[in-house]
Amino acid sequence: MSDKIHDRSRRRFLRMGLAGAATVSAAGIFINGKAFASEDRVSESEPTAEALHYKHDVADVDHPDYSEGEVCQNCQLYTNPNGDWGPCAAFGGRLVAANGWCTAWVGR
After folding, report:
1. CATH level 2 (architecture), domain 41-108
2. CA–CA separation, 17 vs 98, rounded Å?
3. d(Cα 103, Cα 16) in Å, to the nearest integer?
4. What is the pTM of this model?
């Protein structure tokens, strides 16, 4: 009889431990996603950004490939057309400014 009680207690302990570990992991992902979102923004001074002539604001663009109206927000590589910053496939999903531009721009 005591073996049955011991087995139930052990199972309960293991279930609670697994549930707790899953909760802590999920909370960590949520917190990290929110806390470090600004760190995932592409800097204009990064080598890839410089190679693609990326600018956060089209007003700063001085490149012969740039045409009026081209911004990250209306590029096929930008996947968040409703936000100020969004993921860009040219930068591995890192965040670029909606009003930015680079030479990888592709019209929708």
Report:
1. Irregular (4.10)
2. 43
3. 52
4. 0.64
